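Hey L., structure's done. Input below.
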Amino acid sequence: MQSILSSSKTSHIQLKEAADRNIDLCKVEISRPLPAMLTPIKKLPVEVLGEIFSWDGRSGLWISQFEVQPAETEKEVDAPALAISHTCSLWRKIALSILRLWSTVVLDWVYNPPDVAALIGLYLDRSEPALLTLDVTIQGISFNSSFHGGAKNSCIWSILQSLLDLGQRWESTSFRLGPKISFHADSFLSSDHLYPNMKSFFI
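Output:
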């Protein structure tokens, strides 16, 4: 009986050791690069990679926000150029060199979440001095009720102001604004600001 128990214990230890070895082998294999997948794209010329990145139909920054129920919203952010620039140092260098990847800003908001201002600023900075394509929709009950003392005191106005201040870089621009924010934007747009590169404009 003792012999059987000893043999069973030994077998159990051997099985555990074998399992541990297999796990270690798997970890090694997982940590290795996959040359069959990675090597071909690494061999592509920088110019070809740049063209591939530019083929994305949604280049630029897209931020949409919608109300799922009163006082509760969800946000979607699509930033392809940012994702490309975080892949590796080579792709980052290529993405930063293609200004048109950063020069489109599309905003569709119920109201302004405070954490997008830095992201919008990043795209405006990285696209400079390229001309801008802007498509801005800001309207809705939640947006209008979030002013707390007027549109010019809201977070969203500071972001809109940063876009309006870049009028010299506007190429294609569309603004669909709620009545409160529209009043302030109209007074700004009707001032003496110049738009020398404007090809299309809608408000």
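The longest strand covers residues 61-69. Residues 141-153 have pLDDT under 50 and may be disordered.

-- N.
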